[in-house]
Amino acid sequence: MQVYTATERRLVLVASCMAIFVNPLIGSMLNLALNAIGSDLHCSAHQLGWIASIFFISSVATMVPAARLADIIGKRKVFVAGAVIAMVSLLLCTLSQNIQMLYLFRGMSGIGTACIASTSISMIADVYPKEIRGSALAWNTACVYIGASVGPSLGGLITDVLGWRYVFILVVPFLVIGIATILRFPHNISNTEGEPFDAKGSAIYILSVLLIMFGLISLPETYAAAMMVIGFIVLGFFVREECRTRYPIMHMSLFRNSKFTRSLAALFLNYAASYSVSFFLSLYLQNIGRMTPTEAGMMLMIQPVIQVVFTLLAGRIVDRMDLRILPTTGMTLTLVGIVILFVSLGIEYDPFMIYVSLAVMGVGFGLFSSPNTTATMAYVDREDYNKASALIATMRQVGMTTSMGVATCLISIYLGTSAAIAPENYPLLVDVMRAGWMVCIVFCAVGALFSWFRGKTTEV
After folding, report:
1. For the chain, give me the number of helices (H) and strands (E)?
2. End-to-end CA distance of the chain
3. Which of 294, 384, 440, 445 is the S-S candidate for 380 at Cβ 3.0 to 4.6 Å?
4. Residue spans of alpha helices (H) in 42-171
5. pLDDT per residue as tens digits for the range 334-366
């Protein structure tokens, strides 16, 4: 087994952290720029919801094929290619003259992010021994939350001072640092070098994801339900083909491991329950709360700042604990935070309860994310790290897409697809949020059950 030096481990960790930092940073900044984008590009609330959804759909569709490709040609190569694609697409976003152009370039960003996300966790697991892996993964997860924590304030400030297009330019230097750092890492880790790439399986997988995800986001339209049904049929065909293929892009044998599968289910439900919260709150604070983007961003910083602190604390102790405890506790606290929003928010603006909810959810996310990743990777063999890493990233993105799908579906039901957010629609906006948070509460409760009943283990 390859032994890596401390310097080599740091290079992988720094490169991974720099690149993985970009997605939550740009995503949280865009949430605060939504009103400005809507005004500039003349978009409805429903169209604004698609900005994030397009990104996640393209990311999910390419995540698993990218991971398989990384196993064949090397993880460093795919990581660098993804960072370059992400960097170019972000620069192109600044040139968008209409919402369709922005959709296209955000979709390109999703492809680049898929290449980064499908290799980052895997490379960390490859180079770090198990006794310190939890701490390394915690730093990686913390960088996600650091990006999410500084994003709202930066996004609000940049939108107020320079305009929404500049939020894309800000993140490019981090990708440059990530590329420069990983190129200094001398190993292009490859688990299955020389094996063929399953192009047929990749095409079927991408088609199934596109049909299901576009159908989900397009609900409650009639054609959307038909797309989802066809998508699931194609997905079933994909599963059958992968079981028969000698060199599949997705090894179905991983799902026979009940602990691994339940960990993925908990991960999916955690993000499905929580991702749309910041989307709704950014609209709520800037409209009903009458905040500027900068002011709203400062408030939304509360959750990710607390997440960073508790993620790092969890990373220090997770290696010595039953791997069920921290994730289940975290998801339960996230549930409590969403219940607080559901009960307290209305037309009458109450900032105190938002502070409390964001703080509770910050602790919850901090205790869940890194320990759940550590637990999930502990349930697979070393040769399956990249496959597991890709599935972790995929389920995270599918959860986010589902969360935004529920949000856009509810906006369509309550506000329609063309209505702008205006004072006369504020009661309907509150109804949308409350309906969305009720769905999130159900997701969280089920996710906590999956987290606890994954099975007891302390082996990492």
Report:
1. 16, 0
2. 17
3. 384
4. 45-73, 75-93, 99-127, 130-161, 166-170
5. 999 999 988 888 787 778 888 999 999 989 988
